[in-house]
């Protein structure tokens, strides 16, 4: 069986009910997706396969700290000495016998799990489950808990950023560049619109000049009339400068030089998560209207966005 839609269901809904443990290796891990494992009945051990090839930048350290915060009795995060880009997952029963296995292209991240048709997973035939289990356990034997990994002395300078590590890609304004103010019923104030919105609903606008200045940063989209029925918005995971992590989706469409791009981003699964988070940092709780003056009083009115790795962005809103 080949899966290419709603892959998250395989891990959080359709897993064998007698499962006691999930073991898996993934090239990259998404913080918010890993966190969802806290709500399932089985214990999980996940290997961050490409960790050894990441730079020791300040952003990567934040990701490491987020993974360490999830490491515990329910979830174990391991860093391997054997670098691997594989994506293999096996559920085991109480006696550690394999019940089900999935292999394919999907990292354990929102970018893979919530974006239909983007990645695939295929069922492992029962006679081959033992081979996949043995492969994962071989890598586990050559791994250490994320808590045992060090970034050097607290006061030491981080390693130089490798040449293939992207620097700042773009800066997103939290106000309208047309009049220099936060719109009264959209953007951070979307929750105050005369429409079907909820408390704290918010989005961040993506302008045409954002796309033009960073054409490879925003994923091109199929026009609405050409999308497959039920096709989800593109999902990514974001890590904020304060260590908070959440899932976002790119929404809407706009035409830029003949191609279709998203026009805004919001949080997933509730659009209120983004608004609640930013309002808390700015100090303007719902239902007050967020104004440009509130952003300036906070200390900044833009968010600097860079790419950590496949499927994870770093959002800097620090002052």
Description:
The chain is an alpha+beta fold and 319 residues long. The protein folds into two domains: 147 residues, Endonuclease Chain A (Endonuclease, Chain A, 2-Layer Sandwich); 147 residues, no CATH class. Helix content is 20%, strand content 26%. It contains eight helices and 17 strands. The protein has an eight-stranded mixed beta sheet, with helices on both faces. Strands 9-16-17-11-12-15-10 form a seven-stranded mixed beta sheet. The radius of gyration is 21 Å and the shape is elongated.
Structure in a nutshell:
The protein contains eight helices and 17 strands. By secondary structure, it is α+β, with helices and mostly antiparallel strands. It folds into two domains: about 150 residues, 2-Layer Sandwich (Endonuclease, Chain A); about 150 residues, no CATH class.
Secondary structure elements and pairings:
Elements: E1 2-3, H1 8-12, E2 21-26, H2 31-35, E3 43-48, H3 58-70, E4 75-80, E5 88-92, E6 98-104, H4 110-113, E7 121-123, H5 129-141, E8 143-145, E9 170-173, E10 204-205, H6 208-213, E11 234-240, E12 245-251, E13 254-256, E14 259-261, E15 264-268, H7 272-282, H8 292-298, E16 302-309, E17 312-316
Parallel strand pairs: 2-3, 3-4, 11-17
Antiparallel strand pairs: 1-7, 2-5, 4-8, 5-6, 6-7, 9-16, 10-15, 11-12, 12-15, 13-14, 16-17
């Amino acid at each position: 069986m080949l899966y290419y839609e709603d892959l998250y269901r395989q891990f959080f809904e359709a897993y064998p009910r007698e499962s006691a443990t999930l073991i898996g290796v993934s090239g990259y891990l998404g913080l918010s997706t890993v966190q969802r494992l806290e709500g399932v009945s089985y214990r999980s051990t996940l290997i961050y396969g490409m960790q050894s090839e990441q730079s020791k930048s300040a952003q990567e350290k934040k990701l490491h700290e987020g993974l360490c915060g999830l490491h515990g009795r329910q979830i174990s995060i391991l860093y391997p000495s054997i670098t691997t880009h594989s994506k293999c997952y096996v559920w085991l029963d109480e006696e550690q016998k394999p019940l089900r296995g999935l292999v394919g292209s999907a990292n354990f991240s929102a970018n893979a799990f919530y974006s239909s048709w983007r990645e695939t997973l295929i069922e492992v035939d029962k006679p081959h489950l033992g081979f996949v289990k043995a492969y994962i356990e071989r890598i586990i034997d050559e791994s250490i808990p994320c808590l045992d990994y060090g970034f050097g002395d607290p006061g030491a300078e981080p390693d130089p950023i490798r040449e293939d590590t992207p620097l700042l890609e773009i800066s997103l304004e939290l106000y309208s560049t047309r009049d220099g103010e936060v719109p009264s019923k959209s953007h951070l104030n979307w929750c105050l619109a005369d429409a079907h919105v909820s408390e704290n609903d918010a989005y961040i606008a993506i302008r045409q000049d954002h796309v033009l200045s960073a054409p490879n940063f925003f994923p091109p989209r199929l026009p609405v009339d050409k999308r497959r029925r039920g096709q989800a918005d593109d999902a990514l995971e974001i890590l904020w400068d304060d260590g908070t992590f959440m899932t976002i989706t790119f929404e809407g469409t706009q035409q830029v030089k003949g191609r279709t791009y998203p026009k805004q981003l919001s949080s997933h699964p509730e659009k209120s998560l983004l608004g609640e988070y930013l309002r808390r940092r700015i100090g303007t709780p719902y239902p007050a209207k967020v104004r440009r003056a509130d952003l300036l009083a906070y200390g900044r009115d833009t968010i600097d966005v860079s790419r950590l790795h496949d499927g994870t962005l770093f959002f800097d809103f620090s002052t």
